[in-house]
Each structure stands twice: as C-alpha cells, then as structure tokens.
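User: Quick sanity check before I run a bigger batch. Here is a single chain. Can you write out its predicted 3D structure?
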Amino acid sequence: MTSPMTSSVKRRRKKLAPDPDVRSALLDAATKVVREHGVGSISVAQVLERAQLSTRAFYRHFDSKDDLVSAVFLEMARVETRRLKRKMAAAADPSAAVVAWIDGRLDLVFNESIRSDLRQMSLEAQTQMFAAPELVADAYGEILKPLVQQLEIGKRAGVFPDIDPTADALSIHGAIWASVERQWATAVCDRATVRADIVRFCLRGLGVVLTDER
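Assistant: Done. Predicted structure follows.
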C-alpha cells in the first residue's frame, strides 16, 4: 500500500524540469506583446496563445506574469549590455570608456538601425521605473554594470577622484535619458551638440579636467 508521503514524493518527481527552448519561446512571445501593446496589456493568456504553449509550461518557467515581464526586460538589457561592451572594448582609458558608454546609449535615439528595435522597449522600461520599479531594477542594473566597472577602475587609478561609482552611473544615465526623451518628443536635437553637452557635464562631474578647460 502506498503511503501519502510516498505519493507526494512521486508527484514531485514527475514535475518536469525547465526547458531552455520553451523558456525562450515564452520570452520571445512576451517581448512581441510588450512591443506591440505595452506592458499594461500583457497577460499570460496572450503570451501562451502566441507561443502555442500550455499554462503548465508557463509555470514551469515563471512564477507569475510579473516574473515574466521582469525576465523580458532583463533579456533586453543583456543584449544591450553586450552591444555597449563592444563599443567600450577599444577605449584607451576609463574616461574614454565612459564616453563610449554614453555614445552607445545615445544610439537609441540617433542611430536609425538601433532605434526602431529598442525604442519601444526602452520607453516601456522607463515607464515601469515609476509604475513598478521592481520589474526593471535588474535590467537597469545590467545595463549600468559596464559603466560602474569603468568608474570603479577610474576611481582606483585616481582618474575619477571622490566618486561613488553606482550613484554616479545612475546620474550619467539620467542625464542621457533626459536628452533621449527630448529628442524623441521634438526630433530637433543635433547628436554632436547633445553628445558634447552630456560628455562635458558627466566628465566634469567625475572630476575630469577637460582639455579646453586646462
């Protein structure tokens, strides 16, 4: 005769392990829904219909809809971080790496080949920073990681004296995002001018003496 405890163990053993391909399909479907309709309209049912998967498959990989949305933003952030790291790889020093990171983020609005793919998701992420910050906290942390690393290197080398790498990375991002939003709203900004203003503002804030100020 099977005891209740034995039956419980058997049921747990029958639970299928997560499948990377299924998880990827769910993420892809959810990303498309967010791009087309926004985070506010996403539902588990929508995602499952688009992915042609079952509710059971969903809960094998995500605890909730919010867990899925957070994973969507984090996956987007990882793609963006890899792109930023490629731009920063050739930088000769921490100051140049910070400028490369700034250039990479300005691509969102001034680079046509990137803007169309990331614009909607970036806007959604920024909206969630106020509505539900817990959904995008990991994603923003991922994007800021290479910038924070360079700020830490610069601080140790004395290039950026008396800074707080994490706090200053957030400030740099805020300065860039203000210009990005202005350009998306008006489409009248010139990249060279915007870049010069942001680079000057950020490097001064990090304690870097600019060539034209020596």
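The chain has two domains: 17-62, 74-213.

User: Great, the batch can go ahead then.
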